[in-house]
Amino acid sequence: MSILHPTRAIALGLVTLFSALSATAETHVVTSIKPVELIVKAIATEEVTVTSLVPSGASPHNYTMRPSQRRALEQSDVIFWVGPEMETFLSRLLGGKEFRDRAISLMHGDDVPDPGHTGPHHEDHEQHDSHDDHDSHGHHDGHEPPKSHDHHGHHDHGDGDDPHIWLDPALALDMARDIHQALTKQEGADRPALDANLARFEKSLNQTERDIKQQLEPLADISLFAYHNAFTRYAGHFNLNLAGVLTLNPELSPGARHIAEVQDKLRNASQPCLLTEPQFNRQWWRSITEGLDITFSTWDPLASDIESNRDGYVNFLRDIANRAMACLPENAQQ
């Protein structure tokens, strides 16, 4: 019977340890916005680390990245974003050679790249890849509304697809499936655990949808108005009465004609309630609604205050429902 020399035993132990570590190596995921992070957290295993680019209080429509965030992209294994119609600041960067093979757009359509193949869309847009040390510029901190233009920016979709896909639970499930598929392809992925997490998410999502639909039934006679069209998909999925949108593009102030049309709708609406957003200037929409009999509730399409864990996304949907319920006369605040 041979006795293993202590030095060789230690070496063998180290090899075994390193092999085990490599089998459970971390996968580094970068997401563009927190709602995408929440869906990733619902699907990912413990070996997956997730960070988001757009911080609380900022808007993905015109955000400027920091150099440190550019480095996070360089060190990532996979990048999840909605697509060029939402995070315009990422379009050129993720369409380039360095990132296109690991950048996955979760929005599908004729003008949106398929998952895993982000092409060089919107190359002519002015973008800032990462050369600014400032914080985000995605919200308006001053008292002036954003500048008005004769045209709408890339966020005014008109007859095109609304990019706020994470606010529709059915589309969020599609996003989760794309995320699951991408994570299973990463080195050391635990496929059974990922499968179980996706199944759990779908079950939880279905139950949450049923609960929310029942919760929102008292809102049937309330005319809801939104600051911009981020609320449209949620309202459509849950059959809410979205009577109007204050601005078609949060980066630009609406024209006088559009404001007049919205004000007429507000005057003639049944118990109108305006759902505002913390990312945008409060004084501006206050001036539009001045003198009108209207209630307000604030909701956050970017889930800034939602805890980031595997239940975060369904908690996010429930939080939006609770914010909408604040529009009921007995709950509303003028």
Would you give the CATH topology of the largest domain? Rossmann fold
User: How would you classify the helix and strand content by structural class?
Assistant: alpha/beta
Q: What's the total number of strands?
A: 8
Major sheet: size, sense and barrel closure? 4 strands, parallel
DSSP helical segment count: 10
Order of helices and strands: HEHEHEHEHHEHEHEHEH
Distance between the termini: 86 Å
**CATH level-4 homologous superfamily of the largest domain:** Nitrogenase molybdenum iron protein domain
Low-confidence stretches: 9-23, 110-159
Q: Regarding CATH, which class of the largest domain?
A: Alpha Beta
Order of strands across the main sheet: 2-1-3-4
Please explain how this structure is put together:
The protein has ten helices and eight strands. With 334 residues, the protein is an alpha/beta fold. The protein folds into two domains: 26-138 and 150-203, Rossmann fold (3-Layer(aba) Sandwich), CATH 3.40.50; 211-325, Rossmann fold. The strands form two sheets. A four-stranded parallel β-sheet has the order 2-1-3-4, with helices on one face. A four-stranded parallel β-sheet has the order 6-5-7-8. Helix 2 (34-43) crosses helix 5 and helix 5 runs antiparallel to helix 6. The chain is globular and about 60 Å long. The relative contact order is 0.14.
Topology:
Blueprint: H1 6-23, E1 27-31, H2 34-43, E2 48-52, H3 67-74, E3 78-81, H4 91-95, E4 103-105, H5 169-184, H6 191-215, E5 224-226, H7 232-237, E6 242-245, H8 256-268, E7 273-276, H9 282-289, E8 295-298, H10 312-325
Parallel strand pairs: 1-2, 1-3, 3-4, 5-6, 5-7, 7-8
Helix pairs in contact: 2-5, 5-6, 6-10
